[in-house]
From TrEMBL:
This is Uncharacterized protein. It comes from the Bacteria. It holds the Pfam family NTP_transf_5. InterPro entries: NTP_transf_5.
Length: 277
């Protein structure tokens, strides 16, 4: 069975120079979609338990295993894609076609440098670059691979895959914060990303990320629907509460009460700030 380690200790060793140079909290493995069931059974046979319900149009699932003496379980994420299937036209075949054997192993492979950079950018976008580590990953790859990444070809692939807006948004934000990156690798397409922090711009940034980062109108509408009517597990994740066995209607009411409360609080703070001399 072919598999590709994503991020983790291999990524740290290969691109940061040491397996301990970049922190990691789980094990991410990419497999082919047709091998999902086989991989799941293999992971379960090693004592891992599935953490979340199966999501047909998602691109990964998580399993955890308690470690004696550790309050934090070991988590394995099995990936068969890098973005939600119904939010793009991205196919994994080119990634597998250009993957090469790792360390003389026949079935353990590594993504090409180009596809590694593509994956890391989309990973950063998925988290809206909400942590310095997403910036660091992208910057480190630019530093190490600037002469091995063809951004023109990457943008062409992203346009075909329906992920171009995500790629442009992510790199525009990173380059906007660190303009010296232009001296290493020139960005062929760049958006003006102003006012990501503070005031009403914070909410515009959320809307731009959550709903307007998609290349097609259909994909944006799907994401708006998913935000308005999320899965129960996603509701409690957003509420930062432990999952509860309650009806979907009650869960939605809790969610919108919390959203309304946050909106009113933010509006009050904005009005109060505007009225201060």
């Amino acid at each position: 069975m072919e598999a590709v380690p994503l991020k983790g200790v291999y990524f740290a060793q290969e691109y940061f120079g040491h397996l301990a140079a970049r922190g990691t909290s789980d094990i991410d493995i990419l497999i082919k979609k047709e091998r999902i069931e086989e991989t799941v059974q293999l992971v379960k046979s090693l004592g891992f338990e599935q953490e979340e319900e199966w999501i047909p149009d998602h691109f990964h699932c998580s399993f955890s295993k308690r470690i004696p003496g550790s309050p934090v379980p070991l988590v394995v994420e099995i990936h068969w894609g890098i973005v939600k299937e119904k939010t793009s036209h991205l196919k994994m075949d080119p990634f597998w076609k250009e993957a090469v054997s790792l360390g003389g192993h026949s079935y353990i492979k590594r993504l090409s440098d180009q596809h590694t950079f593509y994956m890391i950018c989309l990973h950063g976008w998925r988290h809206n670059l909400d942590s310095p580590r997403y910036y660091i990953d992208i910057i480190q790859l630019i530093f190490r691979l600037n002469n091995r990444i063809n951004l023109h070809h990457l943008f062409q692939q992203a346009r075909k895959d329906g992920t171009l807006k995500r790629l442009v948004r992510t790199l525009s934000i990173v380059y906007g914060e660190y303009p010296m990156l232009e001296n290493m690798m020139r960005l062929p397409v760049k958006r003006q990303m102003k006012g990501r922090k503070g005031g009403l711009f914070h909410y515009w940034d959320f809307i731009d990320f959550q709903f307007l980062s998609y290349d097609t109108f259909q994909h944006s509408v799907r994401e708006i629907y998913n935000w308005c009517f999320p899965r129960k597990k996603d509701i409690f994740t957003e509420l930062n509460k432990k999952y509860q066995e309650s009806s979907y209607i009650n869960s939605i009411i809790l969610l919108y009460k919390a959203r309304l409360g946050k909106g009113l609080k933010a509006t009050y703070l904005l009005v109060r700030g505007a009225n201060q001399p």
